[in-house]
Write a structure and sequence with these properties.
Keywords: ATP-binding, Helicase, Hydrolase, Nucleotide-binding. This protein has 17 helices and 14 strands. The protein is α/β, with parallel strands linked by helices. The strands form two sheets. The protein has a seven-stranded parallel sheet with strand order 3-4-2-5-6-1-7, with helices on both faces.
């Protein structure tokens, strides 16, 4: 099915052709007809399936069909996304779709100068792509108005809930006048997600491309059981032995990311960092080095789990298992995109076995385990037997959408580390 068959203007089709778009992806085939009819949409689809075009192309065509003069601070279409990386990516995609038509696109997110964003907003905006936090700052300063908003999109809405943006979403909605056409896109589903959809959408058309909370069929999954203190060594071993040339590595803590990059460089493997302590310019530079092949490995925290579009990325490694099982789906969604083959590797320590079980239950798939000689974890079988006898093994909860949960988990882990370090120090003093 071609884009021309959907009634898009020749100028849009021309731009899409130059972008390498030939046929509609499944999510585009399902969502675009509903969106073109002005219906609200609730869509569940994996990352890398063409969601941006699915929700933005109908908006762009409607703006062309019903042009309205731009006026100070007024926004015609608002697209909300959870991270600056995703906002930047969406806005650039839409700019490429509109290169031959008069539709202006503005991106606002933290880490960039407010003044330059204010100047762009002052003229009026056809399509505004924003993170919730920075958008609220502009709302409070009177830089944006949603009095004439025609279109509203929530991309990666489940991630917004995970990051605690529900309050910000309510604040933004309080400034929306009337009932714009609303589309909500999510990679995973949950009761909280459904409740949000019920609040925001009117008689939505439901689009499901893959089974909810599933992973792409093009991704091969494998688990390496390993003790926590051997993970860095195992990562270097696999990259060297298997000659992996482009590897995205996910960790849970910034400190871990720094340590892993340092270790990789000592082993002669060029690696870059992407986490919250890095300035936006530094993160963008790291991504460009990784994409171009100058850096072989990029080590990232959860901040990079959404919005990174790395064409043909072959390998994703979960150095640390994610705090939420759903985040496993988002992390490995960086590979196996657009029908290409991908490889998802997870390092699982004895303490992370319960998380692995939760992930397997979520994706309804048993992940293959590979034991690399020399890296066998101590007493792993005994631990598994012990865990399976506990009620927590069966009753372990999934998504809570409580922004404090991850912080509490981090604080507990820091406390445990402090106790362990104190104990080790005391033991050395006694010796």
């Amino acid at each position: 099915m071609s884009f021309l068959s959907q009634g898009f203007s020749p100028d849009i089709v021309r731009a899409l052709t130059e972008c390498g778009y030939e046929k509609l992806t499944p999510v585009q085939q399902q969502a675009i007809p509903h969106a073109r009819r002005g219906q609200d949409i609730l869509a569940h689809a994996q990352t890398g399936t063409g969601k941006t075009a699915a929700f933005s192309l109908p908006i762009i065509q409607q703006i062309i069909d019903e042009p309205k003069p731009r006026s100070r601070a007024n926004v015609r279409a608002l697209i909300l996304a959870p991270t600056r990386e995703l906002v930047d990516q969406i806005s650039k995609n839409i700019e490429s779709y509109t290169q031959y038509i008069d539709v202006n696109v503005v991106a606002v997110f933290g880490g960039a100068k407010m003044s330059s964003q204010e100047r762009k907003l002052e003229k009026g905006v056809d399509v505004l792509v924003a993170t919730p936090g920075r958008l609220i700052e502009h709302m409070e300063l009177g830089n944006v108005s949603f009095a004439n908003l025609d279109f509203l999109v929530f991309d990666e809405a489940d991630r917004m809930l995970d990051m605690g943006f529900i309050g910000a979403i309510r604040t933004i909605m309080s400034g929306v006048v009337g009932h714009p056409q609303t589309m909500l896109f999510s990679a995973t589903s949950s009761p909280q997600m459904n409740a949000l959809a019920q609040d925001l959408l009117r008689k939505p058309k439901r689009v499901i491309v893959n089974a909810e909370n599933s992973t792409a069929e093009t991704v091969a999954h494998v688990v390496y059981p390993v003790d926590e203190d051997r993970k860095r060594e195992l990562l270097s071993e696999l990259i060297g032995r298997k000659n992996w040339q482009q590897v995205l590595v996910f960790v849970n803590y910034k400190e871990t990311a720094n340590e892993v990059v340092k270790e990789l460089k000592l082993d002669g493997i060029n690696a870059v960092l992407c986490h919250g302590d890095k300035a936006q310019s530094a993160r963008r530079r790291a991504l460009e080095e990784f994409k171009s092949g100058k850096a072989r490995v990029m080590v990232a925290t959860e901040v990079a789990a959404r919005g990174l579009d790395i064409q043909g990325l072959p390998h994703v490694v979960n150095y640390d298992m994610p705090f939420l099982a759903e985040d496993y789906v988002h992390r490995i969604g960086r590979t196996g995109r657009a029908g290409q083959q991908g490889h998802a590797v997870s390092f699982v320590s004895r303490e992370e076995e319960l998380t692995l079980v939760q992930i397997e239950n979520l994706i309804q798939q048993r992940i293959k385990r590979v034991q690399l000689a020399g890296y066998e974890p101590a007493n792993r079988d005994a631990l598994l037997v012990k865990m399976q006898s506990k009620p927590a093994y069966k009753d372990r909860q999934g998504r809570t959408n409580n922004a404090d949960d991850q912080g509490n988990a981090e604080r507990r882990l820091r406390l445990m580390r402090a106790i362990k370090n104190k104990s080790s120090k005391t033991t050395r003093l006694k010796k």
